[in-house]
What does this fold into?
Amino acid sequence: MEGLWQGKAPLPERLRPQDLSELVGQAHLLGEHGPLRALIEAGSFTALIFWGPPGTGKTTLGRIIAARLGAKFVQASAALASTSEVKKALESSRELWQRTGGRDLLFLDEVHRWNRAQQDILLPYLEEGSIVFIGATTENPSFALRPALLSRAQLFVFEPLSPGDLRELLSRALTDGRGYGGRVSLTPEAESFLVRYADGDARRLLTALETAVAAEGEGKLTLAQVSRALGRKALRYDRAGEEHYNLISALHKSIRNSDVDAALYWLARMLESGEDPRYLARRLVRIASEDVGLADPHALRLAVAAAQAVEQVGLPECELALAQAAVYLALAPKSNALYTGYAAAKRDVQETIDEPVPLHLRNPVTGTMRELGYGKGYQYAHDLPEGVAPMECLPPGLVGREYYRPKEAGWEARVRERLRELRRLIRGNKQA
It folds into this structure.
């Protein structure tokens, strides 16, 4: 073991936790009252599915569970292992189970890569309980896994490690004898850079640290040394600080001002600085409604599609989807009519009394309700020539309010006259 710690195994392997007490992160699952911890301590399970991004402890936890159960840990990758190899492991565990009552633990990584027929191979063994099974996936199990497999397993969602978790891991790597045993230290700037670089991935963090030490040697490593070793510019950025808000403000305002080039620059600046692409996707969806709105109804669809691409393919593949959405939003005609209209409606909700729903809009589902006047005076719009009934739908105290005021921009310019006519019909042909 001493030789292993001296460098024969990669740093992430040398520091792999050996027990639950050494695990960092996933407090929602493994904390004092975490559901997965309770399940592990009780030992009352047959099949588990671990869903989460790389480097969040899925494989390590599988090893720990096997050790606690006294089970042989059989690891396979669905991307590499053949079904015959996995079938051999399943049969071996069944034979052990029938002979002694013991079971092996099969950890199948990237289980989403198996097709429906391959996943079906697992089902009879899980049904009879002859093997302990853990399937790990980075893809949404609802889409990637067979319902029959999901119904036989308990699903647990792993989250990216927090900056605090990553700093704890760094401290362990620098001081623990399995790591550098105090022979290496980091300046605060270098430590922050590594935490951002890891982006919630413990393996990436430790591999980056090992790369920096191999390139620069032991001792105190600076930001310049670490960034040089990793071949990555150390951009000035703090995902939780002022620079984060400065950059997202620049991106949002560039798109609002239809500056395509600036939009691409600030998007790239944030992505290259380690910003979570999911955060950027959410902001683009917001911009699509706040600053484009119905001036271009397709904008929201494209922004949502980009957000879905982020979830499905991740970085770096999702970069172009985000860029496509940012450029489209910058090019699109702009209107904040939805934003101001909703704000005005919300202000009335907050500042006026909660008037009851007018009787003619209530649904008379019982005889008593009909006797009380529910639905009386309601007119079915489809039965009218214009398709609009002369019938107020706002509470009495707000009759005449006009929240949505379309602008002369894009598609909204086409609906201004339509909206004016609709309001005139609703108000009984009075001047709108």
